[in-house]
Every structure is written in C-alpha cells, then in structure tokens.
Design a protein that fits this description.
mainly alpha; two-stranded antiparallel ribbon; 16 helices; 3% strand; DUF3644; DUF3644 domain-containing protein
Amino acid sequence: MAIVKAMLQKNYVPQDVHAYFSRPTRSVNQARISQIKDGKMHAAIKPASNIELDAFLNAWPDIDPVTGLHFKGDELSIKAREAMIAAVHTFNSAGLFCRAELFIVTSVIAWTYLMHAYYKREGVDYRYKQAGVVKKTKHGADMYWELGQCLAHGGCPIEKGVIDNLNFLTEIRHEIEHQSTDRIDDALGAKLQACCINFNEAIKTLFGKEFALEKRLPIALQFVTFDGGQRASLVGQDLPPNVATAMDDFHNGLTDAEQADPKFRYRVAFVPKVAGKASKSDLAIEFVKAGTPEAENVERVLLKDTERPKFRPTEIVAKANAAGFPQFAIFDHTQLVNQLNARSPGKGYGVEIAGQWYWYDAWFEKVMEKLNEGWTR
C-alpha cells in the first residue's frame, strides 16, 4: 500500500498503478486503488519514500514470464519448482554415482517449500511454537516445520499414497545422509518417479495448471537397452544392509493395495515397438488404454518389484541339511546366529515382523559359507 500511495503522489493514474500490481497469480481490483487515492482505505499507511519507490520500479516486473510468479511475493512457490527441477536434472545427469541420494535430498526441499507456500496462502502458521511462543534457531530466526510435520498437519491437502511415498523417501534419507552408500538408483527408481509425478500434480492442483513442470523437463534419453541378463544384474545388486532393512520395514507397514498405489511407486515398461503407421514411428512414448490387448501385453512385460523371500530358522536348517550338512541342527543355527550377531539391523540378514524373526537369502548364504569353511559350535 505504501508503494501505491507513493505512485499516486507522483501523479500515476489508478489504471497505471493497477498494471504494476496485477498478474496471473494476483488480480488487483482497480477500485481499491481509487479508494486508497481518496483516503477511504489504508489512510494510516504512509507513502513509501522515493528510494523505496525507485527500488520497486527498477526491479519491476520481476516476474517469471512462464508462470506469472513474482520473484519476491511468490518466493516459496518459485523455490519449490526450482528445487524439483534441480532434483530431476541432477538425477538425469550423466556420470554421477550418487544420483538417488542427491534427488531425495533436493526433492524433500522442493516438497517442503511447496507445503510452506500452501500453508502461507491458507493462513496456517507453520512455525514451531512452545507455550504459544515461536521457537527460534540459534541465531534468532523463526523455526519452520520440516516436511514430516507439514504432512502430519490436519490441514494437509496431500493424498495418502503421496504421503507414503514422501515418508518412505524421508526414511531412506535418514539412512543415507552423511554416509557412503552403494548405488541404490535402480532399487528406488519407481519411488523417485512417483515423487516427480506427484509433485507435478500437487503444484497444478494447489496453485494452477500454469505451474506445471512438463515444459521445463524433457524426456531423458538413454544410451543403453536392457536385455534379460542386464536387468537381472541390475536387480541383483546388493543394497547396503541398513537401506535394505529400512525399505523392508517400511514396506511391511503398508498393505498390498498401498504398496501397489502408483502414487507410492510408479512403474513403467519400456517395450521396443515398430509402429504400424509412419506418422507414429518416431514416438518415444505411447499411452495405451487400460483393458485393451496392448495394455495386457504391457502388463505381461512389466518388471514388478517383489518382496525378498523370508525364512523361519527351521527352514534355514532344512535348506542347510538338503545342501549336504545333515548334522546341522536348530541348536547349531542358534549358536551361529549369536556368534555372528546376525540379528543386528545393520547386517541386513533378516527382519522382525510382529515379534517373529525372519531370515533372508543373504543369511542362508552366510550359513553355507561358514559350514563350507568347517564351522562347528
């Protein structure tokens, strides 16, 4: 209002003042400007100084021409879009060896800014408080909600499948931050893809279709094709034990339907295709309608994620007996477990579900390794 009054003092007509403040994300009523001019509104506000007015005019329009977002007034929305664009560009960059880690950290920043922008617009105070007093950082800044708190708030507009996806990625982030990890890109690809699509849908739903990211993010080109052997080698790569355990624990807390929700993990099939029509022969992406023969064919070739097999101790013993160690008994198994501290979560040998311990193939392989080395209790 102070800038408006300063412009009116400089003999700007209300119509010209209106042009400086109206944009796609904020429509200003010209009648309000006339009321300010006549002293009927905001009479107590003093006009901006000449320096402040010059600073405003020099920075104007300061608007993203694609979205209409104002670089100052819409700072949170702009940061949300830029962070997600940076996350995708980083993941698609050639030659990087920790793409998933970088994507997760940056996309969490993007979602946090998006939720802050939404709550700010809705008038929700998204600052931490104690006894009604806003909590401060070490150097005196307000403490704002992190993503987990934004998602847990009763006014959160995000669907459950999207929340599951973000909580999963946040859980993985806690396991990988500040640590050296093996490459986990392939194991998390479906979750990362869902995160991108979910963000694009959320920003369009909450702020408008003009904020979509499709035009900013082209199709990622690949230098490789995958045959069965190549895919098997990718899927067979061992994950860091702590990451594998975190993934299993999170999945075990979801129903089958929640795990199958494309908002939690989004999977696609790449199928080499020779188009029947020349006009379609160069399409890199083709959408098929559900229930059609084409869709059924795609469903048959989808590379579905599967839960790792789990075994009770008696099953591990039976497998060892069948592998040529008939004297190996359940007591021996218990002794070996204790000697190797095999139930330690960081080892990734198994998982506890509803109070019962289950072993993975990795533990059976360790048992066989020890038995082949001549282990005895």
